[in-house]
Design brief:
YefM-like_sf; Antitoxin; about 60% helix; YefM-like fold; elongated
Length: about 90
């Protein structure tokens, strides 16, 4: 499961309950902290946060941005690409 999916499926916990049961709730992984029923914060495991930061570094890399722009330009001109499923099959060989 992806980090985004984990966050979306995370339990919601009110601030009062978080204060009372902090140590046991932290063992559950990701949490969405609510105040009066509205999400106000997200608590993530350290490993998930590091993975998210790595992803942000990758997608803000100038070379990655250039490659994405070239791909979008090629697609807009009608170039056919390779299905993602084929790319993953080739990587696992």
């Amino acid at each position: 499961m992806s980090i985004a999916t984990n966050i979306l499926k995370s339990p919601h916990v009110g601030i009062r309950d978080l204060k009372i049961h902090l140590s046991s709730l932290l063992k559950k992984g990701s949490l969405i902290v609510t105040e009066r029923g509205k999400p106000v914060n997200v608590i993530l495991p350290y490993s998930d946060m590091i993975e998210l930061l790595d992803m942000l570094d990758e997608i803000t890399d100038p070379e990655t941005i250039k490659t994405i722009q070239e791909g979008r330009k090629a697609i807009s001109t009608g170039v056919k690409g390779i299905p993602v499923s084929n790319v993953f099959k080739n990587l696992t060989k």
